[in-house]
């Protein structure tokens, strides 16, 4: 498999990089954190999105070393920003974990090692896990989530509504935050029903002591509807696209 060889080489040659998309508090307009988003700077093909290579990386198992690189790089970046004292308001760093990463045997040990190496306080790290990763093995997922929570690592359920949509299962898992998938936000003002579905998700999550992040916010109208529904955070092109580290850092300088 050519892509497999390419991905291995990319790791060795340090061709991966991270972009950072801000996550905004809807109440204050401040940056609450960033989501780290992987990019591959291919010597011939230019910048490649994870959608094009993560499925192959999952299949070959390369997602494990790539994912550990992402985690370390993201923790290092936040630590560097903290060391520069660029901001007063605490910022969190969100990192995506795929199904395979979430079920790797040494996940906790690997995370502990990265936290130790980077010296980032683990309460600033947020992990984004999909419903499918959790539902693949709910019992072991619950245990793993609890171990992460014991370390004060923040836990988000990503792309909510696209997987099992298991509203009835949510209470079983020790999660802090729910990210509503952008397909719901996209349709928010289309029908009364869409709005009511989002309202129901938000109400339930609040009952379970989870905060809500709306993904894919692209318009002022979506923003104001989400605010009126009590959604805490938003992420999307309306605020900012995923940014290069320098551009993300420049935004932080303006973060009151
Ligand atoms: O950034 P972009 O829209 O191209 O991302 C496409 C998909 O790739 C998204 O579903 C996102 O969650 C996923 N993704 C981005 N970065 C990472 C990463 O570092 N690890 C994993 N597992 N998935 C990622
Ligand atoms: O699956 P996940 O939520 O991690 O995917 C994040 C991806 O969503 C990023 O790759 C990013 O490029 C994309 N994204 C971020 N904001 C927007 C937006 O406002 N609109 C759309 N269509 N995609 C977005
Ligand atoms: Mn995500
Ligand atoms: Na998502």
UniProtKB/TrEMBL annotation:
Ranges for domain EAL:
1-256
Give the superkingdom in one word. Answer: Bacteria
Protein name according to UniProt = Two-component response regulator
Taxonomic source organism:
Planktothrix serta PCC 8927
Lineage, highest ranks first: Bacteria, Bacillati, Cyanobacteriota, Cyanophyceae, Oscillatoriophycideae
Which residues of the parent chain are present? Answer: 361 to 616 of 618
